[in-house]
Amino acid sequence: MVRHGQTAWSAAGRHTSRTDLGLAREGRDQALAVGRHLRGLRFARVWTSPLLRSRQTCDLAGFGRVAEVVDDLREWDYGEYEGRTTADIRRERPDWSIWREGAPGGETPAQVACRADRVVATVRQQPGDVLVFAHAHVLRVVAARWLGLAPEAGAWFVLDPATLSVLGWEREVPAVLQWNAPPDTSGEVGADR
Fold first, then answer.
1. 75: exposed, middle or buried (Cβ count in 10 Å: 0-12, 13-18, 19+)
2. How far is CA 121 from CA 114, 117, 124, 166, in A?
3. Fewer CB in 10 Å around end: N or C, the chain?
4. Is 135 noted as a catalytic residue in this protein?
């Protein structure tokens, strides 16, 4: 899984779901670094969120020609909190957490989990590795659901822009094999255990 590269809003900590921003210059550089890291690896399928920042990351990483747009990978809908920072929201609601409540006019954790469950089920039916380009919150929920955890457990899986994470198996048990790794990390991505 690859979180998209930096955007102006992600750099500022602004919640971005439906606002279809492209990558900032740093995000484009990050996406190119992801491509260098993944060069030579083969994937049975490549999926991307329909949102521009993910599609640009996928394309700059060298997978745009083979990528399939998967609507279930779009970012958590932040509703009325779109474009706002957590600090700003907490001035009004000091105990607010996306992981407990979702966002007014947007999605709840359970709604995002339904989409994540479809992604997990489809990945598990594939004959090989699937490369996914998407967004921080939805990928964190995908990881939680891959492990059989509640969607709220995604709070434990921090993701920086343009990082690589690998979900797989420890024998027959779903596992996190790599998490939040920068693209220049050493070691094999997706090595079987």
1. buried
2. 11, 6, 5, 16
3. C
4. no
Residues 14 and 24: their CA atoms lie apart, in Å, by 14
Residue 127 lies inside a defined structural domain of this protein: yes
Q: Is residue 187 part of a domain?
A: no
pLDDT in tens, 37-81: 999 999 999 999 999 999 999 999 999 999 999 999 999 999 999
Would residue 4 show up in a list of annotated catalytic residues for this protein?
yes
Query: Which domain covers residue 20, as residue numbers?
Result: 2-181
Provide the whole-model pTM: 0.93
Total Cβ atoms within 10 A of residue 154: 27
122 class by beta-carbon count within 10 Å (0-12 exposed, 13-18 middle, 19+ buried) = middle
| Residue 189: inside a domain | no
- 46 contacts 67 by C-beta, under 8 angstroms: yes
Residue of 4, 15, 135, 137 marked catalytic = 4
**Of the listed 15, 37, 75, 135, which one is catalytic?**
75
Q: What is the CA radius of gyration of the chain?
A: 16
Both tokens of 53, joined, read 């920042």
